[in-house]
Amino acid sequence: MTTTQLPGALPPSSLAGVPVRPGGFLATINAEIIKFFTLKSGPIATAVLGVFIVLSALLSSLSLLSPSGNQNPNAEPITSVTELRFVDTVLWMAIVFAVVAVLFATTEFSSGQIQLSFLATPKRVPVVLAKSIVIGVLGFLVGAIAAALAMLVPLAVLSTSDVTYKFDLPEAATLAAAAGLFMGLIGIVSLAFGLLVKNVIVGIAVPVMLFSILPSILESIGNDIVTTIVGYLPSVAGRVILTTFPNPAGLEAWSGIAVLAGWAVVMVALAGIVLRQRDA
Q1: Which of 7, 84, 102, 164 could, after both became Cys, cross-link 203 (CB 3.0–4.6 A)?
Q2: Is residue 8 predicted with pLDDT exceeding 60?
């Protein structure tokens, strides 16, 4: 009898490095870290999105040195910029990280190796929590470090230009932390949804639509109640801290992040409840 290994699945030989003996919660977290870094697509995609955030800041800085000849002649010339200009790419790269999180959640189900996780940790809620912690911490680190580097790049590029870069260290540190929180929480919401549906296609399609397409469609309806609801969607609520665009529900920066954190808590709790009630 032959077996077919799905693309991206952990090879049987790699299981030797995954703890299979029941242990404490820290052992469960360690096992999830090993799984994440065993699947090469996850770490590579995460590193690439971090590099892209920094690269985007570099290109944005260079564009200020050489404005396009097609620039609107009626537009005011840009004479000064703030840190916020160079971290908006985090909002889009978080969607890429959402895909990474979904793959991290669903690969074990598609390969059947989720049973190994539940053998090592018979209580399923700790597995859900461990996966959420791993993806949340990774998202925070990548988002915060990439955003910090993105805000430092213009210091060198714009140092001899006519454009003033109003760099403020406390503000930059706050934005870096905010970028990390946004990336990590988006990852947790996506991971939890992946655990709920156990299907990679549905698991990717729904969060991507929820984070990027659905808000625009709903806002275009023009109904006040619907527009207010849009303000409480996870990506719309959380992005307030990284953009100057107003929130449709009137949420401020940290209240928006609180709403996004609420989504993460509810989704993780729901995933834990559902996994306890059904077979792997």
Answers
A1: 102
A2: no
